[in-house]
Design brief:
Chain lengths: 109, 114
């Protein structure tokens, strides 16, 4: 079953922060985050596994609440290059990823 | 590594014609996935392979769709006959493992059936 992402779209000014949420009705083992720019392929950002720690690098980080089957992606001090559509992909343990419909992020100057 | 390579990048075909999409995964990756992306449905898994063996094709929409992986470095997705509703971007992706490693996507094939 497809995870639900929110919001569907968000517009930010450079330097602002954003949070993108991903929620599943199934017990999750893994949550992946990807970013896709227009006309390009999705690019892997990070993975969170059940029992693992919050991940992050630079100004993009993520958390995984195993009890609620939810993950959040945090983008701080956004840059123009952060623009794109963000997808979460979820797995339930030895299953391929099922992707949400995406959150379109637009960062403006 | 050159990444996952897909061909062609764009395909325009007439309804009823056969279409073949091609994919070369990253060397050493055990898993290969075919996804279809549309505005309405997002990224949908069509089929995936493990060590060249098809594991789950339940996402293949109809018998008109078929996929093969004759060796570790090549896979095809075939649609015969094609229909306008098949128009979408088809992505191939590969990974070392099913869930605990990230997926690397190819550049995709934008298919338009007229």
């Amino acid at each position: 079953q497809q995870p639900v992402q929110s919001p569907q779209a968000v517009i930010l000014r450079e330097g602002e922060d954003a949070v993108i949420n991903c929620s599943s009705s199934k017990a999750l083992y893994s949550v992946h985050w990807y970013r896709q720019k227009h006309g390009e392929a999705p690019v892997f950002l990070m993975i969170l596994l059940k029992g693992g720690e919050q991940k992050g690098h630079d100004k993009i980080s993520a958390s995984f609440n195993e009890k609620k089957q939810q993950s959040s992606l945090y983008l701080t001090a956004s840059q123009l290059s952060y623009s794109g559509t963000y997808f979460c992909g979820t797995g339930t343990g030895n299953t391929p990823l099922v992707f949400g419909k995406g959150t379109r992020l637009s960062v403006i100057a | 590594d050159a990444g996952v390579i897909q061909s062609p990048r764009h395909e325009v075909t007439e309804m009823g014609q056969e279409v073949t999409l091609r994919c070369k995964p990253i060397s050493g990756h055990d898993y290969l996935f075919w996804y279809r992306q549309t505005m309405m449905r997002g990224l949908e898994l069509l089929i995936y392979f493990n060590n060249n063996v098809p594991i789950d094709d339940s996402g293949m929409p109809e018998d008109r769709f078929s996929a093969k992986m004759p060796n570790a470095s090549f896979s095809t997705l075939k649609i015969q006959p094609s229909e306008p509703r098949d128009s979408a971007v088809y992505f191939c992706a590969s990974s070392l493992r099913l869930e605990i490693y990230g997926y690397t996507f190819g550049s995709g094939t934008r298919l338009t059936v007229v």
